[in-house]
């Protein structure tokens, strides 16, 4: 096994990669084309590619096609150019208008691992039919092969993340004591719901930060010259884009931040956007950090006694559970899933939202979240779900537009990531295929789990009037609009019963129908 390939990857994927190469009759030295989210050794380091030139393509048409966050474009281009620099003579870097032009420059059919979106898969298949692609190989940057997941899931759409997560733990023997979970419980989420401390920061050591180099400086100059239709602020690179950087970021997290991660992972501190989160989503989604590397490092910290079990289990659940679940559901639910809109929400995203203009917003939590996206292209999962997603659900934004916004505005957003997370989990637009109830709440939850409400112009306890919290009042407007659906769900029927007892419901509905100030 190549020393570069993450442990377990070759054993898992060798047979499938070999079969795809044999079936296609691809030459042993056919060039390997890697996309901008396939930049790690789990792709180019496989022994089947040892004799291959690596082809990297920077397509101007792709960069212009959507309005990406400026820092996201920087991360992808920096990752690609750093890989080109690392591989030296083994790689060729093509800056062309289109992918087709670059493949024509290569001059011979390439092999490529299956890309990570339905649209890209269809495009690669067209290239294969046109003779520009010799073989399409299985994706190798996730723990579980797609074929194995489909065999496990079968035709059943009713499987839950918890069942999948337990199966993952057994499949990869992570945090297991024989056939049972270490500690006797599969899920320690109950221990990881603490509100934020009464301090401005969590008080943990900083994450690992990259040091920009000449490659980054050239990327920034080139992006300036391209005059692309970006959103968000430029800024220093905050995330790892190479395998070496990713290992340093992982080591910093495991050694200094993993132990305190769990208890407050669902909390928000306005002055501490990172808290104890790992910041590993970008290197994972660029393919430079394999999920099993991160999971095994965290597991070892538990066995070494340097990180508490609930923190390690929470982190493992995020990666081996939720992230892998989302990846597989993207394919399992099919191409049309992004268009699902079972709640019939059709409002356009407001301009202040798409422009990331948090300064336009009065509500402290919403303003902070939008400005976090503007300044960093990133906020952690609770502002995403319980502030941004919660607001969008209450205000009935179109789910497909919201999914596209998350994909382009977040530095870790890719086509496979956001549809299940947004359309399914956040907006409940899939009719309950992913989540058993809509994830919405009033201001009381935000007040409990953040420090935003104390200085906010709105009061989370007030439904009507100048100080009425848009999340509290918006929650009851949402319950009223979807009364039939929520009454029929045992997890939400109590909310409808509570709404029926509100004496000021008519005033709330009239107020929220005309609300302009958030």
What report would you give on this structure?
By secondary structure, the chain is mainly α. The protein contains 24 helices and seven strands. The longest helix is centred in the middle third of the chain and has 25 residues, at 309-333. 48% of the residues are buried. Residues 187-197 have a biased composition (Basic and acidic residues). This is Cryptochrome/photolyase family protein. It comes from Actinomycetospora chlora.
Topology:
Layout: H1 9-24, E1 32-34, H2 41-44, E2 54-59, H3 60-65, H4 70-87, E3 91-96, H5 99-106, E4 110-113, H6 118-129, E5 133-137, H7 146-153, H8 161-172, E6 176-177, E7 180-181, H9 214-226, H10 243-256, H11 258-261, H12 281-285, H13 291-303, H14 309-333, H15 351-354, H16 364-376, H17 381-394, H18 399-409, H19 418-426, H20 443-449, H21 470-481, H22 483-487, H23 493-500, H24 505-513
Parallel strand pairs: 1-2, 1-4, 2-3, 4-5
Antiparallel strand pairs: 6-7
Radius of gyration: 23 Å
Mean pLDDT: 96
Write out the strand line-up for the largest beta sheet, numbering strands in chain order. 3-2-1-4-5
Helix proportion range: 40-55%
Strand content: 5-15%
| Total beta strands | 7
Q: The biggest beta sheet, please?
A: 5 strands, parallel
Low-confidence stretches: none
Q: What is the overall shape? A: globular
Report how far apart the termini are.
56 Å
Structural class of the helices, strands and pairings? mainly alpha
Number of continuous helical runs: 24
Protein name: Cryptochrome/photolyase family protein
Biased composition (Basic and acidic residues): 187-197
Region (Disordered): 185-210
